[in-house]
Specification:
four-stranded antiparallel sheet, disordered N terminus, single chain, about 10% strand, alpha+beta
Length: about 375
C-alpha cells in the first residue's frame, strides 16, 4: 500500500496537518520573529481599523492636545492602503520590556536627595533602536517571498492597538493600554504592513470584567471613562509630548514623576504575571557604567546638566527626545512637589537658566518649597 493510501485510511483525528503555502510561511515567520526575541507575533487582515470613528471623535474633542501629528496622519490611520498600497496583512509583534527595580537604585535612594520617577520603559536603551533592528531582519526575510513591507515602531500613522487587539496580541484595557494575559501591560508593539496575504489570527477576549483599578489609580483623572483618555491631563503627555509650560493646576498632581507615568499600569492585576524581559537593553543602566546611568541621579543633580552633558547622559535613551529644556522643566516640577531647603541653591541657579521654560518652572518650584517651609514654621 502506498503512502497516499495509508493516509487515506487513517481516522480523521490522526491525520497529519498539512499547511498550505501561506500558513507555512506564517509559521516560519512566527518562528523567525521568536528567534529574534519577540514574545508574540500575530497577524490581522489589513482592513480599516475597528475604532477609526472613535479616533476621529477623540481628535474632534481636542483630547490629543499638542500632538498635531495625530491629526496630520488621520487619513492614513483610517486607511492603511494610504500607507502601503496593496497591503494585505498587518503583522503585529510584542516585546516584553519589564525589569524589576534594581537593588543598587533602591539602596542609592536612601543616600541621596529627592529622586524622580521615570517610566519603566525608559530605564534603559531606546526601544526604537532595539526593535527597528529586528524589524529590518523580518523585512528582509519577507522580501525573499516577494513581499513589500512598511515597518513601524510607535512612529507610523497606524492605530496599532486596534490591529494588535484584532490579531489577538491582547485586549483593550480600560486605561486604553493593551493587556496580554501573560505579559500584562509591559510590552512594546511593532507593526509590519505587508503585501503578502497571511492567515489572520483570532482576537483575544476582553478579560477586564468589572475591574477599574487603572481608572482610579490615575493621579490626574486622565482616564475619563473606560477606554477614554484625555491626553491633556495624562502625566505621560505632560512630561513627554507637551512642549510648552505645564498647566499650573496639574503641576502638584505630577508628584515626583519626571518622564512618563506607570500608575495605571502598576495598578493592573494582570501584571502580577509579568516576567522579566530577556532584553537586557531595557534594564536600568547601572552606575558602574560610568556616565551612562540615566536613573542614578538625585533631582537636584539633574539640574547641573548642560546641553552637552544632557546629550551624553541620554545618548541612547528615550528621554533624549524631550531635550534638556523639557527634561529639566519636569525636574523642576518634581522638586517643587517633593524637594526641600537643600534643593533651593540648585533651583535658584536653574531660575537663571537662559532657557525660559526651565527658568519659569524653577521659579515655581522655589515658591512651592518656601511655602511648605512657612507652613511648617506656622505649625510649630
Amino acid at each position: 500500500m502506498n503512502a497516499a493510501a495509508q493516509l487515506k485510511d487513517l481516522p480523521p483525528e490522526t491525520m497529519p496537518v498539512r499547511l498550505g503555502p501561506a500558513a507555512e510561511l506564517k509559521q516560519n515567520l512566527v518562528d523567525f520573529a521568536r528567534g529574534l526575541g519577540f514574545d508574540s507575533c500575530r497577524v490581522a487582515v489589513c482592513a480599516p481599523p475597528a475604532h477609526a470613528d472613535q479616533f476621529d471623535d477623540w481628535l474632534s474633542a481636542g483630547a490629543h492636545g499638542e500632538m498635531e501629528y495625530m491629526a496630520r496622519g488621520e487619513e492614513k490611520r483610517r486607511d492603511p492602503q494610504k500607507v502601503l498600497r496593496g497591503a494585505k496583512s498587518v503583522i503585529v509583534l510584542a516585546l516584553n520590556y519589564f525589569h524589576s527595580e534594581p537593588e543598587w537604585r533602591l539602596a542609592d535612594a536612601k543616600k541621596t536627595g529627592a529622586r524622580g520617577r521615570i517610566a519603566r520603559y525608559a530605564w534603559g536603551d531606546d526601544y526604537h533602536n532595539v526593535i527597528e533592528a529586528k524589524l529590518e531582519k523580518i523585512d528582509n526575510f519577507l522580501r525573499e517571498f516577494g513581499g513589500a513591507q512598511k515597518c513601524y515602531v510607535d512612529t507610523g500613522p497606524i492605530l496599532e492597538r486596534d490591529y494588535a487587539a484584532t490579531a489577538g496580541i491582547g485586549w483593550h484595557g480600560k486605561s486604553t493600554m493593551l493587556i496580554d494575559g501573560k505579559l500584562g501591560t509591559w510590552f512594546f508593539l511593532a507593526e509590519i504592513l505587508t503585501t503578502l496575504e497571511l492567515p489572520p489570527d483570532k482576537p483575544a477576549r476582553d478579560r477586564c470584567g468589572t475591574c477599574d483599578r487603572c481608572i482610579t489609580a490615575c493621579p490626574t483623572g486622565a482616564i475619563t471613562a473606560p477606554h477614554k483618555l484625555d491626553a491633556r491631563r495624562c502625566i505621560s503627555y505632560l512630561t513627554i509630548e507637551l512642549k510648552s509650560s505645564i498647566p499650573l493646576e496639574l503641576r502638584p498632581l505630577i508628584g515626583d514623576r519626571i518622564f512618563g507615568c506607570d500608575d495605571c499600569l502598576d495598578a493592573c492585576p494582570w501584571n502580577r504575571f509579568a516576567q522579566v524581559s530577556h532584553e537586557a537593553a531595557f534594564a536600568a543602566r547601572s552606575p558602574s557604567r560610568t556616565g551612562t546611568s540615566t536613573t542614578a541621579f538625585s533631582l537636584r543633580d539633574y539640574l547641573a546638566l548642560d546641553e552637552a552633558e544632557f546629550r551624553n547622559l541620554f545618548w541612547n535613551s528615550p528621554i533624549k527626545r524631550i531635550k534638556r529644556r523639557g527634561f529639566l522643566r519636569n525636574v523642576c516640577v518634581a522638586l517643587g512637589n517633593v524637594g526641600g531647603e537643600q534643593d533651593l541653591p540648585a533651583l535658584e541657579r536653574a531660575a537663571l537658566d537662559p532657557e525660559p521654560l526651565i527658568a519659569e518652572h524653577a521659579g515655581w518650584a522655589i515658591q512651592q518649597i518656601r511655602q511648605r517651609q512657612e507652613r511648617r514654621i506656622q505649625i510649630r
